Amino acid sequence: MKKHNFYAGPSIMPQYTIEKTAEAIKDLDGTGLSVMEISHRSKEFDGIIKQAQQLFKELLNIPDGYHVLFLGGGASTQFLMVPYNLFSKKAAYLNTGNWSQKAIKEGKFFGDVDVVASSEDKNFTYIPRNYQVPGDADYFHITTNNTIYGTELKEDLDVNVPLVADMSSDILSRPVDVSKYGIIYGGAQKNLAPAGVTFVIVKEDILGRVNRDIPTMMDYQTHIKKESLFNTPPVVPIYSALQTLKWIKEQGGVEGMHEINQEKADMLYEEIERNRLFQPNIKNEADRSIMNVTFVMKQEYKDMEKEFLDFATDKGMVGIKGHRSVGGYRASLYNALPRESVKALIDVMQEFEKKKA
Ligand SMILES: *Cc1c(COP(=O)(O)O)cnc(C)c1O
Hints:
This protein has 357 residues and is of the alpha/beta class.
């Protein structure tokens, strides 16, 4: 049976990426070597990583003065690397969920953290607005897409301190104005590549302002100087990332992706609103994520929650169980998820509604 992959991460990859990676694992472009066996200092890999950086810059319109790094350690290591490199006296954070809180926790190792606003009072079901970012903060940290709760901060904020964004789960899903950011980072395993590689887009001139000594691997300058080759980078995931970037370009770039993503999200939210059994987790439409759609059974049908999950699973839906801190369901509609999968989920929701009529 056809499976429809709604996993939140690691998650669905473009078929193109899977096939190209599978071929290169057997034989990289006729070299007689597997991509798993080549030196990260070989000319083959040099071409791969340079192309990936170049395409990343092209697709996101990254201005001069920024570097694209491919590192290990996941977004979780960036929670620590950001303050190591930027935190002198005080940092500001926006608390929009579990991942924000993890970033805040690491920031606190370095000093005074000012949480300027939080949506914790309503279990992170909205994006806070109307707050002040103190002008003396070393940086302001945001999480643009809250993978667990299904909210998304879609505006590129104007702040007068370096803006740092965790974009793990919405990178390349929509256009962003990179010039508004000091650092954009994320784990690749949601929208880009298999787990193992972390992308960091960093504006060079925000670095070098802290007084502390930074351990070598934690220092962005190390990786800028060595062009992500200070130590062995995750070669195979970087190869896959390049394939995904090529695929995104084929889809019309991030503008094209955004159009498709918006259409998929609109389709699903519309059904959630229409279907008499379900309701959306996020009420304010402007705050709804186009990547992770969270919904629940209406109060009067709560006892059917497990039954629908089993029903949908039987029909080929994979990974729609909500995160334990939200409950209900979560359908992740990442770039690679085709429209047909969203249609299949909608069909299953309608079938279940009829069955219960
Ligand atoms: C998945 C996720 C992370 C964690 O990334 P790792 O690469 O596992 O460290 C961090 N932030 C957000 C927003 C995520 O969705």
